[in-house]
Specification:
Arc Repressor Mutant, subunit A, D-Maltodextrin-Binding Protein, domain 2, 3 domains, alpha+beta, 5-stranded mixed beta sheet, single chain, sequence-specific DNA binding, about 25% strand
């Protein structure tokens, strides 16, 4: 599709959007007020939408103007960073970076290392969106997202960060009370709580490498956070499935123990990956964060 608007007009529009005034923007840019007004009109005509609502006292962005403002910021950041990169002038990545990640990963893995990231990349303004919901990262203006489980989306680049495994764990007190250490008993009767992503009527498992299934939907509490599953099980609420990275410490200190050793689970169920759009130039700041994620997950 042919672009009808001039990219050189974006800095003018951004200045108007941020100052919410034609006169204020003109002063900041050292341009005649009439030139700024003309540029805004040309953009609106080329785009076929009204970007600003103007009266004698106020200027405000329309809904379309807010969208175009966000896109303009991204375009200008990419233009600026690309120019610097091509000239070999960027020694440290910089600019705003928006990253989405699950609650558990944010709390247990990322938060303890944020100070390290800030020290390495002081010029990156990091915004972390903590959510367990699936996001349309293009629509939501997300640069990168950490996701759990298998993915199949041709519009995204997927880089695996960590091949985790699901551990079936229980507290020592529960194991003792239910005599789970004596022999293989029915796993189904002991799972009281499960992470929502695994809550299905026919969750695939293997028993001594033989394919089987378990119902993690009926009569099972469901929560969209593996840390809540871990903590509930730790308090004695049956057995539960927890990704290894979120129960590693508890297994080491003995507050949780693995049970049902003959049972194994799909290896992709707890895999961590980072995704980003294929159509967007991967900036230095995105590459820096991906490298940091890789190092962080290698240390798990």
């Amino acid at each position: 599709m042919e672009r009808k608007w001039n990219i050189e007009h974006l800095p003018v529009f951004v200045q108007v959007a941020e100052t919410l005034g034609i006169s204020a923007a003109a002063n900041q840019l050292d341009l005649p007020k009439s030139s700024v007004s003309k540029i805004i009109s040309q953009l609106e005509k080329a785009l076929g939408v009204r970007l600003l609502e103007r009266n004698s006292r106020n200027v405000r962005l329309t809904t379309e103007g807010e969208v175009f403002y966000r896109e303009s910021i991204r375009i200008l950041e990419q233009v600026d960073e690309t120019s610097h990169t091509m000239q070999g002038l960027v020694s440290h990545p910089s600019g705003r970076l928006t990253v989405a990640m699950p609650i558990a990963f944010s709390r247990e893995i990322m938060a303890p290392r944020l100070s390290e990231f800030a020290a390495l990349y002081p010029d990156i303004a990091l915004e972390i969106v903590v959510t367990n919901q699936a996001l349309d990262i293009i629509k939501e203006q997300i640069d990168l997202a950490v996701v759990v489980g298998a993915l199949n989306d041709s519009d995204l680049i997927v880089k695996t960060l960590y091949h985790s495994r699901l551990c079936c764990v229980a507290s020592p007190a529960y194991i003792q009370a239910e005599r789970l250490h004596d022999e293989m008993v029915n796993l189904q009767s002991h799972v009281r709580i499960a992470e929502s992503r695994y809550a299905m009527r026919r969750f695939p498992i293997r028993i001594d490498q033989t394919k089987s299934q378990i119902d993690l939907y009926s009569k099972v509490f469901r929560v969209n956070d593996p840390l809540s599953v871990r903590d509930a099980v730790k308090s004695g609420f049956g057995a539960g499935l927890v990704p290894y990275q979120y129960c590693k410490k508890q297994l080491a200190d003995g507050t949780l123990k693995e049970v049902f050793p003959k049972v194994s689970f799909d290896v992709t169920a707890a895999t961590l990956s980072v995704i980003y759009p294929t159509r967007r130039l991967l900036s230095n700041k995105s590459r820096a964060f991906i490298d940091f994620l890789t190092d962080t997950c290698d240390a798990i």
